[in-house]
Amino acid sequence: MAAIAEPYRIKMVEPITLTTRAQREEAIRAAGYNTFLLRSDDVYIDLLTDSGTSAMSDRQWSALMLGDEAYAGARSFDHLVAAVRDNYGFPYVCPTHQGRGAEHLISKILIRPGQHVPGNMYFTTTRLHQELAGGTFHDVIIDEAHDPGSLHPFKGNIDIGKLEALVAKVGAENIAYVNVAVTVNMAGGQPVSMENLRAVREVCDRHGIILWSDATRLAENAWFIKHREPGYADRSSASIAREMLSHVDGLTMSGKKDCLVNIGGFLAMRDERILLKARELVVVYEGMPTYGGLAGRDLDAMAVGLHEALDDDYLTHRIGQVAYLGERLSAAGVPIVRPTGGHAVFLDAAAFLDHLSQDELPAQSLAAEIYLDSGVRAMERGIVSAGRDDQGRNRHPKLELVRLTIPRRVYTNSHMDVVADSVIRVHERRRDIGGLEFVYESPTLRFFTSRFAPIAPDVDGSMAGLERGGRDTAALAALA
């Protein structure tokens, strides 16, 4: 495959600095071996998340200067509504400060205590909001999604049999809504096929169930349909995205991903009754219905970014860069989730550190070890992210992953080479890497703020060889 150059020119740069091994040892100890708690200044290449970390375009920066900061009725809101209508086909929009604000609102609107919410694999904040509203999440994704080595082209698909079985078991009236994510983050950024969306729509229509979408990475999913699903090769990603959304009743969007902005999100829907309820709640939790916790300039930048994210040249480079990193790692024998997704390469930490049990937190340990090696910051997506069930027991997800998340329009493939070289080095000495244990555990969304310490015997040259840290009980009490 020929090299694909960035479909843009660089106008502005931000310096980054590589720290020494000794500096990184000190930093990871201070962060309690949690990459979320590292200071940005201590990070060389930051692959923690693609949320709010994109580089904005010249048109987006121009839009910032034109933002209407009126408290009510700002024209910036009108610009966002028009962009959503033109690209996504929804007439009604309610902005929120970010995607989880939208998740909060729709959970309170659609879920009655005791109801059930089937979806194609959980996402951390989505499931939490569903549970806080009194709902129970059910994973109805196809089995291939839980197999890192499966080459199924649409591992994000909902298993229609599982969905029908759940409806038969609990009754359609007890299904709050079906939530389909495009793409599926926790499965490795895996897409959903158009055929599957149509099938899920048919089930929902037959049973009178609302079909909602977490459309945070919609553009990437549309690109995969274009390149993997028969009948779409000659279609633009923009037109495919519009067709995808024609099958759903509404969506939550984190503008920090596919809208290419640093903050923002929204709900979009066809039913004016849901809009009215959202407007009632957004005033309580976010802000006026026309700004939803955002400045007018944020709304304008999001409107421009929504258009740009559906450009095929941009998407070809974006997804090609993810594939480039994945191919380098796979060629070196590093176990990854295959096929590579749209926003990240996911390391199979369970296979990478197969000498550790899942309760020894292999993904958390691997993310910390990669940082120690090179200053590259990744994040855990395994048992720590899965949290505890309502009985206080650790959930044990089938996938134990480390996510190397590539910000949009930020890094070049030279940066990807640095990342690949580091992960390969760590893989070569993987037997020296020990596990971690909690020394402070946050009661909710624990992957953000929990702290850890090594539990393995000291081994020179790896994280296990560092002095145990983070056990200052006074500091832990203050965190709690």
UniProtKB/TrEMBL annotation:
Q: Which InterPro entries does this entry report, sorted A to Z?
A: ArAA_b-elim_lyase/Thr_aldolase (IPR001597), Beta-eliminating_lyase (IPR011166), PyrdxlP-dep_Trfase (IPR015424), PyrdxlP-dep_Trfase_major (IPR015421), PyrdxlP-dep_Trfase_small (IPR015422), Tyr_phenol_ly (IPR013441)
Q: The Aromatic amino acid beta-eliminating lyase/threonine aldolase domain covers which part of the protein?
A: 46-421
> Which domain of life does the UniProt lineage start with?
Bacteria
Q: Which organism is it from?
A: Fodinibacter luteus
Similarity-based family: Belongs to the beta-eliminating lyase family.
Q: What class of enzyme is it?
A: lyase
Catalytic activity line of the entry? L-tyrosine + H2O = phenol + pyruvate + NH4(+)
Q: What is its EC number?
A: 4.1.99.2
The molecule here is called Tyrosine phenol-lyase
* Cofactor section: pyridoxal 5'-phosphate
Q: Which CDD domains match?
A: Tnase_like
**Is Disulfide bond among the key words of this record?**
no
What Pfam families does the entry give? Beta_elim_lyase
